[in-house]
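Please fill in the sequence for the structure shown.

STRUCTURE ENCODING:
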């Protein structure tokens, strides 16, 4: 019978579609990369999700985040993403966690329920803990490396972390994961040399912060605030989604 996934079924077949419907994917970080991961996966027929992020949509997100519009500014990203996913597929099950993933709260997440974990968070500490926890539980995990300060979406690759080059975040992750005896990790990374952002204080969050008063986490807490485009994080997110679908129907 014709349904919203019929065009996908023409490529993957009915058994693959049934398999995807019975999977649960946890997406940690619903930003420029993670938002497109969610978008592509719900449109691919994944049946259940956990979305984890404590951030709210900001004016500066409109240039690259699929959930960011003038109407969603100031709302929790997980709330907006959940609504969007349910509008695409009313039968999808979406659980949300309005928090950042940290080593201190790692035990609060039901890793045993996940069929795949997406690491789209920004901080090295959180990425390492998430990867260690997923691998300890035997859950496939894919990790997004740096998408900021990049201009060429064609330079993204899927690789093992130990086969990456140039990407500064991947270099740090290789070193830290090697210390922890992590021997392999699937990542999406760019081998493009990062572009140095213009030092324009008139448009810098450092001097013009618009985060709401009392916000628990602000972008100004970062040592550097990267530049970004509409197309680079999107490509990284879509590559991640493609890898997940392929892995789940093997």
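FILLED IN BY: designer on duty
SEQUENCE:
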């Amino acid at each position: 019978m014709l349904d919203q996934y019929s065009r996908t079924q023409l490529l993957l077949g009915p058994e693959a579609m049934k398999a995807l419907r019975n999977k649960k994917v946890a997406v940690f970080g619903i930003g420029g990369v993670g938002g497109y991961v969610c978008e592509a996966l719900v449109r691919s027929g994944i049946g259940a999700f956990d979305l984890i992020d404590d951030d709210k949509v900001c004016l500066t997100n409109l240039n690259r985040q699929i959930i960011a519009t003038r109407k969603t500014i100031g709302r929790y990203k997980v709330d907006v993403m959940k609504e969007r996913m349910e509008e695409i597929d009313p039968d999808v099950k979406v659980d949300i966690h309005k928090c950042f993933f940290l080593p201190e709260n790692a035990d609060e997440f039901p890793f045993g329920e996940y069929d795949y974990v997406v690491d789209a968070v920004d901080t090295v500490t959180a990425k390492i803990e998430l990867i260690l926890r997923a691998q300890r539980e035997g859950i496939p995990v894919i990790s997004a490396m740096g998408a900021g300060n990049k201009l060429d979406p064609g330079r993204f690759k899927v690789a093992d972390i130990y086969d990456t080059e140039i990407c500064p975040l991947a270099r740090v992750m290789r070193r830290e994961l090697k210390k922890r005896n992590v021997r392999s990790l699937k990542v999406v990374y760019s081998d493009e040399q990062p572009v140095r952002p213009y030092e324009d204080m008139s448009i810098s969050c450092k001097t013009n912060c618009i985060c709401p008063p009392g916000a628990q986490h602000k972008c100004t807490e970062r040592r550097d605030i990267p530049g970004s485009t509409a197309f680079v994080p999107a490509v990284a997110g879509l590559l991640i989604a493609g890898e997940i679908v392929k892995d789940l129907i093997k």
